[in-house]
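CORE FACILITY INTAKE
Project code: CF-77B
Contact: R.S. (postdoc)
Sample description: multi-component assembly, two entities in total
Requested service: structural model of the whole complex
Turnaround: standard
Below are the sequence entries exactly as provided by the requester. Do not edit them.
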Amino acid sequence: MGYVVKQEKNVIAVAEASRVAANDSGAGMAAAARRRKLAWTPARAGVYAFLVVAALFFLLPLYVMLVTSVKPMEEIRLGTLFALPVNLTLEPWVQAWRSACTGLECEGIRGGFWNSVAIVVPSTILSIAIGAVNGYALSFWRPRGAGVLFAILMMGAFIPVQVMVYPLVRVLAAVDLFSSLPGIVLIHTIFGMPVMTLLFRSYYAALPMELFKAARIDGGGFWRIFLQLMLPMSTPVIVVAVIMQVTGIWNDFLLGLVFAGSEHLPMTVQLNNIINTTTGERLYNVNMAATILTSIVPLALYFISGRWFVRGIASGAVKG
Amino acid sequence: MTAAFVKKRQSVSVAAYIALIPMALTVLLAYLGTMLWTARVSVSSSRTFPNSDFVGASQYIRLFNNERWLLSLQNVAVYGVLFIAACLVIGFLLAVFIDQKVMAEGALRTIFLYPYAMSFVATGLIWQWILNPELGIQEVLRKLGFTQAKFDWIVDQDMAIYTIVIATVWQASGLVMALMLSGLRGIDEELWKAARIDGIPRWRVYVSIVLPMLGPSVSTAFVLLFVMVVKVFDSVVAMTQGGPGTASEVPAKFIMDYLFGRANIGLASAASIVLLATVLAIVAPLYYVRSRRADKGM
């Protein structure tokens, strides 16, 4: 059990630190004030030179992806990868959304988009609900044997998916859930359980035990204390959990490929089909438009949520 | 203690047990059960369907005589060393440079971390486009006048695996930066004052004092990156499909191919047990060391 406890402390420490790193509050302003007093030296110039070059390297693929997606094919064939478009066109985006071929069908990536939405929404809700209940039961009720289960669950986070995939296919097929929407939702719930449980357990463990004891004395039962006391206090951790799960499940490829079945293939799988399995001339502009469309949801979530995203990374750090 | 209280307590703890049924089922069936099942199949002669015979270690022997498996092990070793080293070095440098009280810190952090929000598939596809020899960087260099420029790693048998390193380092080094930066922000300002009084150069403080202090952040980052290495699949499928030929084959993809494409689940199970053993062999000691430190109160 020792390592689990320690692991959890790390998570809290890292999460705490990331809060500091990602702050944009009063302390940040004070630091900014100090910052301005620094003299401009060659060493400072070197620091900025490094950071600017690094930033360009990180932005380059995004830039290439964007300009490629709005160029007509004639311009792309010129081999001017970094040039801005001369005749800007949105046609590739329309094509990617509506008529690109994902194998035999040519209906664009919109089907994949809605499949991903249909997978992400219930999977996120279910995995967070179970993670919250687990965390709550483990922090406050501590039933016998739960500690051991939790320790195994944490180790489970490191098991390569390949070890589990085939038996899970057999089990799901036996209960008629293989290649179905409920099947893939169940799979995401199972694979999300270690991190979600850890996240909520750490959060509830940091709450004062007296709070729980007072609720018990007032006659609160397991579910009542959870629903009326703990859940309303859990907004911050739920936000982090939603960001982590939506990003993770949206970006999943392997599980969707194996378990979703051809009717429910998520957007990532369809994107790969559009680009890697179509024959004939490769429409790079359409491909890049489809890639952007597939990345829009997690990227938007990232740009909007900012420091919450960083917090999610820190708490997911034990699993990855 | 009154009888009523005892009764109440029992009924409540039943609710707690019931609430944990999903977790218990997941642990017993999805984690332990599948692991045992796979271990069992790996010592049988199963091909398309699982057999219940016992053939000892012969699947493992066949596995380690399989050229493609050996190649994928070699690839993942090369990939893993380069990927982890590059991510740690770049991530650490980015964090240290950002920590120099620079302007636009928030914007820089956002730029370095955004690739991590994208899927491995998207990452692989973008880099496949940038690195393609017909219209990508190679062509740009030639247009610029370097007519002999050669940068066709993605279609070169010996170099393809390095293109996957480039793409995934681009994606994951921001993560290391975020972890390291939070470590750096946890370091006491007094340290810098003391170092300045003693006249120690800043870089020296970073290498000799700060880096060792970041131990926990480094080991967290290492575990995360290591898990990514073992799992590397999506980016390979998206970028090179394991090719050219089998040049960029990796174990995770080998297993998936033998499970679902080549219907040889005995061999694939043996391979995934090898993968599991490798993960445990690397991750378990790290956590053991950590828990030992925790016990000593460090």
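Facility notes:
- The mean pLDDT of chain A is 83.
- Chain A touches chain B through 107 residues (CB under 8 Å).
Invoice: internal transfer
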